[in-house]
Every structure is written in C-alpha cells, then in structure tokens.
Amino acid sequence: MTSHKKNLLVTGGAGFIGSNFINYIHKKYPNYKIQLLDALTYAGNLENISNNLKSNGHFQFSHGNVTQPDIVNQLVSDSDIVVHFAAESHVTRSIYDNSLFFETDVIGTQVLANAIVNHPVERFIHISSSEVYGTAINAPMTEDHPLNPMSPYAAAKAGADRLVYSYVHTYGLPAVIVRPFNNYGPFQHLEKAIPNFITSALNDQKLTVHGGGKSLRDWMFVEDTCEALDLIMHADSKKVVGEAINLGTGIDTDILTIAQKVLGLVDKSQNLIEHVKDRPGQVSRHISSTEKAHRLLGWTAKIDLDDGLQQTVEFYKNNKQWWEKFLWMKELWGQK
Q1: Is cis: bond before 140, omega within 30 of 0?
Q2: How far apart are CA 18 and CA 224, in angstroms?
C-alpha cells in the first residue's frame, strides 16, 4: 500500500490531532497526496505541519470552512479518502458561545457528507468523540453505550455522529465513525488540560483543577490515535464501513493525578495545584472499551501514560516559542 498513491482530504488538519495525523501519514506514505482544508481558527496552525511536507508537491492547503459547499465539493471530487477532523472542540467555550459549534460540527458534516454522496470516495472517516457518551453508565464504555451528551459541544458532536450514521444507511456512505477518548501530545492547544498544566508549571503558575479533581478520563497519546486511524484507512471495507469504533487505552486516571504527575516531571512543588469550582456539564468518568478496535483492527494503544506525559512535557519544554503566543487564550478559556 505504501507505493500506491492515494489522494487524501483532511478537514481541520491544522489542529491538534489532525496535524499529528498528517505528519504521521506523510512519514509513512510519502507518495500520498494530502489536501488540507482548514479555516485556521484560533486552534488551527500551519506551523504544526512538517516543513518537509509543506515544501513538496504532495501537499495542498486550502483556506476555507467545511460549511462552504463549493470548496468542499471541489476537494472531495479529487479525493480517494476523506478524514474529517474539522470541528469546534472546547467544552467550556461551548457552554458560553455554542451557536458556532452546531454550525461547524453538524452543518459542516452535512455539507461534507453531501459532497461525498455526489462525488463518491473509497472511505470517509468521521472523527467523533467520546464526549457523545456523557458519563459512563457502564465501564468500560462500549460502542453501544447510550449517547448522553452533557455539554453543547458534546451534543453537536453527537448530532454529527448520528448524521453520518444516517447517511451510511440512506445513501450507502462508506463511512467509519471514530470516537477517540482524551488525546494529548505535541501541538495541543493550551486550552486543554494537559498542555495547560504543563505550561503553567513551566511558568511557575497555579495549576487550576476543577472541583476535587476526581473526574476520570481515558488519556491516550496522539501517536496511538494516528496509528489506529491509519489502520482504519486501510482495513478491509467489509470489516469497518458502517461501524463506530472507540479509540482509547482502557485505563482511566483522574485529573488531579495528571496535575501531580506533570509537576513531578518538571520538578515543581505540588503546592502549585489550586482547586476551583466545577464547571457545568462535567463528565465524571470516561473509560474506553478496547475490544472492538482490537477485534476489527488488531490495534491496542502502545504508549503508556507516564511515557506519553514525558514526551509531551519535553515537547513543551523545547518549543516555548510555539506556545507562548497562545498564553493569553489559555487564560481566557483554560482551566477556570
């Protein structure tokens, strides 16, 4: 497969998971052509994309919004595989300003799905979220867990998730719905918990933890997610098309422990932890079932939490010029 050229369209690929995915795919499949569609909102940054890829003929960037049918149709018509990351993706921000979440996440997904109906592709990989499940009723959470979104962000993701499912059954869309659990790693925006903690610790600032910090999450290093998406792209369609697949480690760790681990890695005092009131719509526990991903893909996450945190801390230590310009936004939407 590595020698056979594919044309990929990646929406939202200048963001955190999307840019890591593009860099991963380019390194593994240098003959693949990658088209990137991104609106370059505050969380999108072309600096995340490998300079080696940007400087060769296998990369094309289009500045635009996934809600715009003209550009979406044009790019889809020249694609073999579509990987759809484009979304507004911050729980706290969605609580105070939610209209854009439904516009981008639901209407944008509809525009893209319609384009694929009109210009068929080999595979459409829709990046949903574990947030669609709400708090775990059963643990671990399988793909059959009820969808009980607890924030406007999660509701928008659930709407897009079910829209894609309906297009599979109505139009035969060759889609796979992927529900990643809490990713972390290089190039993650400072509004998210782990980079927020790391950069606060590096600057000797308080690490603010919501409530008692006992909310549990299934933390997965982004490279593991990229490997799983690669397998989904290339799996036998009979195995994966029409399926929803969780991507997680099957291990949950509370937020307070994450803050403590980060402080240990940067050799700072645990006294930097400060507890603040819980935010509305907080999910108390997420933990992924790994059975289906292993059965369909032969995949399990490889990088454990301590190794992943160490790699992530090293990235932020060594790339201060990348993240310093986002510090003002960390205070605006970060760990309040």
Answers
A1: yes
A2: 13
CATH code, 262: 3.90.25.10
The answer to whether the predicted template modeling score (pTM) of the entire model surpasses 0.85 is: yes
CATH number of residue 65's parent domain: 3.40.50.720
Tell me if 300 sits within 8 A of 140, measured CB to CB: no
The answer on 172 and 139 residing in a single domain is yes
Sign of CA dihedral 327, 220, 217, 255: negative
Q: How many domains does the chain have?
A: 2
In the chain, what is the straight-line distance between the N-terminal and C-terminal CA atoms, in Å? 46
83 SS3 class: strand
What are the residues whose beta carbons fall under 8 Å from the beta carbon of 251, sequence distance 6 or more? 218, 219, 287, 305
Please say whether the beta carbons of 174 and 117 come within 8 A.
no
Element (H, E) at 276: strand 273-276
157/269 same-domain check: no
What string of H, E and C letters represents the secondary structure of 138-158?
CCCECCCCCCCCCCHHHHHHH
Q: What are 23-53's pLDDT values in tens digits? A: 999 999 999 999 999 999 888 899 999 998 9
Gap between the Cα atoms of 130 and 164, Å rounded: 16
Residues 6+ apart with CB under 8 A from 264: none
